[in-house]
Amino acid sequence: MVAVSMALLGGAVPAYAAQTSLPDVEDEVMCVQCKQPLDQSRAPAAERERAFIRRGIAAGQSKDQIKDGLVAQFGPAVLAEPEDSGFGLAGWLVPIAAALAALVALLLAARRWRRTGTPAPAGAADDSPEPLEDADAWRLDRELSAFDKRGRA
Predict the structure, then answer these.
(1) What's the pLDDT tens digit per position in 97-148?
(2) Given 3, 23, 106, 143, which residue has the most CB atoms within 10 angstroms?
């Protein structure tokens, strides 16, 4: 009713006034004392931050206005997300770069693991072993015979 009368009288009611709530802001800021999300903290500093948010909501401020006020009052550490410019940009870019570097390293390692060692000679289409020379074949037969005799004893 008040919104309709203000609109008729020429005063505009901000659309965000009814939309901003404590849970909307609380999950996007941190407790400056215990460094936990504000919605999970019960520290005295968290209660002061909640009181600040409630006063902003009562004054009809938007979520961004309330968060700006929190930063002015408690410092930039109050924001749960790093800023998207300056040093805060590193908070976004470093994890992404680390994940990409890990992916590249994993792909290179997988590629290296797939290699079988020395390449096959030209014209060798199958994986059959090369025939042994006569001396090597004779020595292999002799050693296998000796092994069989020891196994039976």
Answers:
(1) 899 999 999 998 888 888 755 555 555 555 667 888 888 889 989 998 888 8
(2) 3
pLDDT value for 75: 82
47: nearest Cα among 13, 79, 74, 83: 74
Are 40 and 32 in contact by the 8 Å Cβ rule? The answer is no
- Does residue 64 sit in the same domain as residue 35? yes
Look up the domain containing 43 and give its range: 16-78
The single-letter code of the amino acid at 92 is W
Same domain assignment for residues 51 and 90: no
d(CA 52, CA 31): 12
pTM summary value: 0.44
